[in-house]
Amino acid sequence: MRSFFVPTILVSGALAARPFLNEPDTGLEQVLGNTAEGSLPDLTDMVGLPDFDWAARNYLPLQNYTYYRNGAAGEWSYRNNMEVFNRYNFIPSVMNDVTEIEDSLSTTILGHNFTAPFYISPCGSGIYGHPNAELNFVKGAAAGGILYIVGNYPSLLSYRANIPRPSGYASLSIEEIHAAKAQGQVVFQQLYLTKNDTETQDLFDRSKEAGADALVFTVDAPIFGTRQRAARLDVSLASSSYRYITWDYYKKLQSMTDLPIIVKGIMSVKDAKLAVKHKVPAIVLSNHGGRQLDGAPSALEVALEIYKKAPEVFEETEVYADGGVRYGTDALKLLALGVKAIGLGRPFMYSNVFGQEGVERAIALMKKELAVDAANLGLSDLKEIDASYVQWTHNDWSG
Asked: Which residues bind FMN (predicted)?
């Protein structure tokens, strides 16, 4: 008995201590490993979203890549965001007609129609990846028919002078970004807000005048997190002031605009229920990409807790989620719990090194992967997915 039990403990410990793989070994290095540093492979060589991470790291100056890649403290939340999906197995169903699955990807977000249930999450400083910066996201999202949430308003953040930018790089204003929209394109605007009512009202008014269809209020960053990787290269965000974020403040914000205000950064059942109580039209389950509080739960873990303890939340408000999604299978597990749309941040920031074409390819790859994975799961229609398609028992051997 003892000879069996002790090795089991040793094996378990070894697996738990295994090194983290930022990108899995899918043969990329064998095929593209000779790509010269500072150059890009052919866009057609990108066959999955993790490939764009590799390409950006190989191409960008270290400071630029680190600005996108860094996480909080020891980056355990960043790691967990990606690994958590593999702790739960699917329960596939066979002998189903899946031939029309690609036609079922369309969805609505706050009443607006889109071609797929995923969107480009709000991320700042697209300029560090490509001279056209956020213009590539606007145009790429339009071409792919998905939602783009415009990231941090540039004037509220201090851009680090030491981060290399090719000649001609300049940050874009709310007006410049929205002016690039296609006719009829729906775009949301994320804002970091201060307690200065005059500044907040100005941002609300400018966002509406520019054509934003909704506002996204990020609440999980009362102060920028401890980001050691970024600090080593001096690419941390300059602001270190504490922001005033309360439900009373949110109520006041609601009186300052007639645009819907989405709350981004919900990390508990308690706060999800409070959002419903305060009539929030939509919430985003997010730990800020693992960049704020190391040890904060992943969106999947929060979605699972809501499903178990307060499933009515998914009916009482629209629930979106972001963080660590790299595969169609990741998105399926969130959708299975009741999440309506999934945000992807870093993969699109990395794809931006290829310009608008890179953003469009990332969208196309995710759409195809989502459809293929849904078909192999046995879904005839993506909207039929529910929690019964996943075994929600934790796998100790993975993640």
From this structure: 122-124, 190, 218, 264, 286, 322-326, 345-346
Sign of the torsion angle spanned by Cα atoms 200, 204, 205, 209: positive
Which of the pair, 211 or 154, is modelled with greater confidence?
Answer: 211
Inter-residue contact 136 to 352 (CB < 8 Å): yes
Model confidence pLDDT, tens digit, residues 239-279: 568 999 999 999 999 999 999 999 999 999 999 999 999 99
**Whole-angstrom Cα distance, residue 170 to residue 163?**
13
- Structural domains in the chain, CATH included, are 86-156+169-234+242-391 (3.20.20.70)
- Tens digits of residue pLDDT in 2-30: 333 434 444 444 445 567 889 999 999 99
Q: Which residue has the tokens 């009202």?
A: 201
pLDDT band (50, 70, 90) for residue 235: confident
Question: Which residues are catalytic, by number?
Answer: 288
Q: Kindly state the tokens that stand for 370.
A: 């989502």
Annotated binding site for glyoxylate: 67, 167, 192, 227, 288, 291
The H or E element containing residue 65 is helix 62-69
Q: Can you list the positions of beta strands (E) in 36-129?
A: 89-90, 107-109, 112-114, 118-120
Residue list, annotated binding site:
67, 122-124, 167, 190, 192, 218, 227, 264, 286, 288, 291, 322-326, 345-346
